[in-house]
Amino acid sequence: MVRCTRGKRRRDYCAPSFCPPHRFAKKAWFLPDLLQTSSRTTKTFTRNLFINDSHSNSGATELLAEKLIQRIASLERVVVAFSGGVDSSVVAAAAHRALPTNSVTVTAVSPSVASWQRETATRIAAEIGIEHQWIETDEVDLVDYRRNDAQRCFHCKKTLYGSIDVAVKSIQSTMADATILSGTNADDLGDYRPGLKAGSDAGVQTPLADLAIGKADVRLLAAYFGLSNDDLPASPCLSSRIAYGVEVTPKRLERIDKSESWLRDRGFDDVRVRLLKKDETEIARVEVPLPELNRLTELRSAMTVQFVALGFDEVVIDPAGLRSGNLNEALVAEIGIKRS
Q1: Could you please report the per-residue DSSP string of 171-185?
Q2: Which of 90, 109, 249, 279 falls between 20 and 30 A from 122, CA-CA?
Q3: What is the CATH number that goes with domain 57-224?
Q4: Cβ atoms < 10 Å from Cβ of 51
Q5: Burial category of 103 from C-beta neighbours within 10 Å (exposed 0-12, middle 13-18, buried 19 and up)
Q6: Is 68 exposed, middle or buried (0-12, 13-18, 19+ CB in 10 A)?
Q7: Contact 205, 229 (CB under 8 A)
């Protein structure tokens, strides 16, 4: 099985015996070669080959897309809280199809947002063709947010949705009564996410979760809508990298952003640099998917020099690999929250 570069899209795969034109391709990806590449490449290949190209799934995905579009069309005017991630991108794409002249996306500019995510948001909004606005949020100035306790996400989202409401009304009077939509999906409901309460308090609607659309279906919908970020790994805000109880500051957020950017420049697309503190020692705990641990270990010396120069005292590699939301584990156990 090879990837045929004559295909118009990167999801066009073929078998040599059934696709003579592939011999004219300048480059073909063979499965054994893919297994030696990064885990993201392998996962993308496998998912696209066995899921996205499945005729049995295409009809179900189309039906799900129609349900999502109809759900949003019933709202008349909408504003999408847009990060450029796959969840909010799918909501934005559906909103633009449902309400092409009555939908807009808004992205927050804040020290807690990684620099590469801003670039992604700009690109994806352009792909969709939807209006895109930027707003500055000041959650990092709030004492309750900087304290970084179990309610940090609540204070962040409360600030975000309040800022969106004010900004949209000032930008377009016709959007004054628009409904704010978030990219919360059904799988998010099983984690500890106090930001969901902030959204509920602000009247934010969650069409993906309402339709029981989980992450796997979100990625299928992104591919269906033709979005280039359908395989983009999840990447929560930079503040989520800082251990609970350690103060969130712009300086620490910048250090994390630069550290992760250094790793992304070296091919680690799915990465977390956690900031832990022991007494006065600030530790960078680096997490990547298990298949990429060996490659990261080879960079240990250079990475340590770079991260220490950025302000970390120690640098360690987590042998357990990347576990999204793992800083919540101790918190969930401590306060007795059930996770599905």
Answers
A1: H-GGGTTPEEE----
A2: 249
A3: 3.40.50.620
A4: 16
A5: buried
A6: buried
A7: no
* 238-330 maps to CATH 1.20.950: no
Which single residue is written with the structure tokens 């910048």?
Answer: 254
CB 77 within 8 A of CB 102: yes
For strands 78-81 and 179-181, give the pairing: parallel
Nearest to 222 by CA among 47, 70, 87, 39: 87
For the chain, the domains span 2-56, 57-224, 238-330
166 in Cβ contact with 72 (< 8 Å): no
163, two tokens: 């800022």
Given the DSSP bridges, would you call strands 314-317 and 281-287 parallel, antiparallel or unpaired?
parallel
**In tens digits, what is the pLDDT along the chain, a chain of 340 residues?**
333 333 333 333 333 333 333 333 333 333 334 434 444 444 444 444 444 444 446 789 999 999 999 999 999 899 999 999 999 999 999 999 999 999 999 999 999 999 999 999 999 999 999 999 999 998 999 999 999 999 999 999 999 988 888 887 776 667 778 999 999 999 988 767 788 888 888 899 999 999 999 999 999 999 999 999 999 998 889 999 999 999 999 999 999 999 999 999 999 999 999 999 999 999 999 999 999 999 999 999 999 999 999 999 999 999 999 987 666 665 544 444 443 3
Q: Tell me which residue of 212, 225, 199, 204 sits closest to 90, measured CA to CA.
A: 225
CA 26 centroid distance within chain: 33
